[in-house]
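Archive transcription. Copying these from loose printouts into the bound notebook so they stop getting lost. Printout 1 of 2:
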Amino acid sequence: SRNVTERIHTMNALQELNHQKNKLFSIIAHDLRGPLASCMGLLSLTQREVPADELKKYLQLAQKSAFNLHELMEDLLLWAGSQLDKVSFDPAVLNLPEEIEAVTRRFADIAHAKDITIHVDTEDDSLSVLADRDMVRTIIRNLLSNAIKFTPRGGRVEIQAEPKNGLIEISVRDNGIGIKKEDIDKLFSKTSTFTTFGTNGEKGTGLGLDICKDFVDKHNGTIWVESAFGSGSRFVFTLKEF
């Protein structure tokens, strides 16, 4: 009956809400406290009289912790906003190579620190999409961040964009550790949080791909992954060509 259907729908909605609440508390309790405590501890060490080279090392580690904390906070705020439908969606005509370049510049130092090469191939410098700038940059940022995180020192990350049947496929490929077959289905799941440590012990929240999926969905696009454990990964999403 209609009442039973409505009750089932309400129960499912409440279960989803409870899951999101638990995920939020878990992130605040564990993922945010770690980098913050690390950063505070390292900065307190700089108050002691130590040799200049040791001081520089402490400050570099504190900077890394602060960057990780900033990334986590950014993901958390975006994820919370997307769950509440509070993230504005303002599509416009964007030059895709310029958007990709803006994101890759941000990761130049991080990639350099792991001796990772980022190669961009967009075929055509005038490639345009109809999309929301902030969302597109966030999707690329998360995929690129993951690629660097799970690629060992001296590795390579490739970003490619190519037109296909009125759409543009944007892919981020790495030659890193790859993903086990049984874990691939967990990546874009709303009911499970999947996250692992990067090759340098980098920790994530598992929110990044949730956000990517939400933002790609808003563009009526698709997102998927091709990966084999030990052989790297290729994450692909589509946008409407303009």
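Printout 2 of 2:
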Amino acid sequence: FLLLSVFIFSPFLLNGKSFIWKPDGLTQHFNSLVYFRNWAVSILRTLISEHRLSIPLWDSSIGYGSDILTTLHYYVIGDPLNLLSVLTPVRYLEYLYGFLAILRLYLAGAAFSCYCFRMKREGSAALAGSLIYAFSGYGIALAPVHPYFINPMIYLPLLLIGVERVLHGEKGHLLIAVTALSSLSNFYFFYMLAILTVIYFIIRFFSMKHENRKKELGICLGRTVFFSLTGTAISACLLLPMLLRFLSDSRSDTSL
């Protein structure tokens, strides 16, 4: 992974360029990371110095005034990797931004490796598949310019492992956890991941042998829905405000 990363992304270093591009990279992604870092640090300082938990939810400096959670959820809030910014001084956030972009690709490949191991595909097959998955056209094109778009590549293999566990009668803790994490991370990608997971469930169930297909379908489907809804409910603290904001957005009333 390191060798391929150096080969693919070395032109940025050789030409003195970073992953922060104009307009979206600077005005949206990087600025959101800086804002999130300062916002989180202010919460921790208040907690340590005043021994109280105070979470600012509104900021008049965002446009003409806006809700912090729903504004930054699409970019930074809900993504656990961005918590590393709390430990990073602002002057070094540019380097952290680039590091996290590469780290997301690595985690995507690692997640795909876990899926390969679950499906009994190990050794060179798992290694080749993971590298192809991590350095796909989507990953290479979007990691430098829209690093948060790589998160679905991390969550999808883990969701599929969770489905596999349910189909084989195992516990659903992984499906609950990854569902909650993906819905906390980004609402837009969450529903697309849900669609892909449903398609995968259908294909995998009907490709497996069953003694009583109707009965087992009801059991597996019920367990999958229950675990998925549990994970979604865990994320409701962010997901519900985002849904309400999305439904009230002026763009939703626009007709083509």
